[in-house]
Amino acid sequence: MYTVTSEIYKETNFKPIKGKDGKVTSKFEFVYPADEQEEVEGKVSTTVDKDGDLVVARKREKCGIIELLHSEATEIKLVGLQVWRGALLLADYIFHRRYEFKDKNLMELGAGVGLTSLAAALYVNKVVCTDVDIGGILDLIRNNVKLNQKLCDTKKIDVMEYDFMKPVSEYSRDLLMAIDESDIVVAADVIYDDDLTNAFIKKWMLWRQCLNIFLNKLCTNPGLLNI
C-alpha cells in the first residue's frame, strides 16, 4: 500500500510517544502572543536602578502545548489522520489575528486531528470542528479535544461530520444550523485531489454569508492575506 508522510515530522521534534495502535501522541509547543497591554507599550519596557542605570525588562514569553494523537504515515484517503503544515500556519494566523476572531463562531473544514480548532478555541466563542467520517477521524478529534481540557474551554468545541462529496440533502440539521450560525469559516490543506477540489468549490454557496464578511474585511484591511 502506497503511503504518504507529513514533512513536518522530520523538521521538528514533537516528542512523539508511540501507542499500541500504531498512532503517536505528539506535543506541539507554541508561544502565546503578547497581551494587549504589552502590544501598546512595546515589546520591551525600561526602568532605572538606584544608580540611574537602565534596567531592561524583556518580554516574558508564555508557552503552551497542544497535545495530539495522530498517525505518522497513511494512505492518501486518510491523510486527515496526520498533522500538516497548513494547520500550523492557520493556527499561527489565528494567534496573530486573535482580536478579529474574538467572540466569533468559527467553523473549520477538513480539520484533520483538530490542531487549528483547538488553537481557535482559545479566542473564539464557539468552534465547530468538521471533517469526513472516515478512518475514525471524528473519534480521534474528540479524543484530542479531551486531551486538551487544561489548555482551553473544550466545551465550546463541537465535532461534526462535513463531507463535501455528499449532497446538501444528506447533511444533518445540526450541521446546516452550524453553517448558518458561523461568522468565520477556515480551512487548510483541503485541496489536494481533483474530485475533492470540485466538491469543495461547489459548496462555497453554503458559506456565502461568511465569505462576504471576509471579503468586506479584505476591502478595508488587505493585510488579512499577508500570512
Entry keywords:
single chain; 227 residues; alpha/beta; three-stranded antiparallel sheet; 9 strands; disordered C terminus
Oligomer type: single chain
Q: How many β-strand stretches?
A: 9
Strand order of the largest sheet: 8-7-6-9
Q: How many H/I helices?
A: 9
* Strand/helix succession: HEEHEEEHHEHEHEHEHH
What do the pLDDT scores average to? 84
Through-space gap between termini: 36 Å
Q: State the major sheet.
A: 4 strands, parallel
Q: Whole-number radius of gyration?
A: 20 Å
Strand content: 15-25%
Helical residues, percent: 25-40%
Q: Which stretches are low in confidence, meaning pLDDT under 50 for 5 or more residues running?
A: 212-227
- Structural shape: globular
Class derived from helix and strand content: alpha/beta
Describe the protein's architecture and organization.
The chain has helices at residues 8-11, 36-41, 85-96, 98-101, 115-120, 137-147, 173-181, 194-202, 208-220, and strands spanning 17-18, 24-31, 44-48, 54-58, 63-70, 105-109, 126-131, 157-161, 184-187. The chain is α/β, with parallel strands linked by helices. The longest helix has 13 residues, at 208-220.
Protein topology:
Elements: H1 8-11, E1 17-18, E2 24-31, H2 36-41, E3 44-48, E4 54-58, E5 63-70, H3 85-96, H4 98-101, E6 105-109, H5 115-120, E7 126-131, H6 137-147, E8 157-161, H7 173-181, E9 184-187, H8 194-202, H9 208-220
Parallel strand pairs: 6-7, 6-9, 7-8
Antiparallel strand pairs: 1-2, 2-5, 3-4
Give a short synopsis of this structure.
The chain is an alpha/beta fold and 227 residues long. The protein is built from 9 helices and 9 strands.
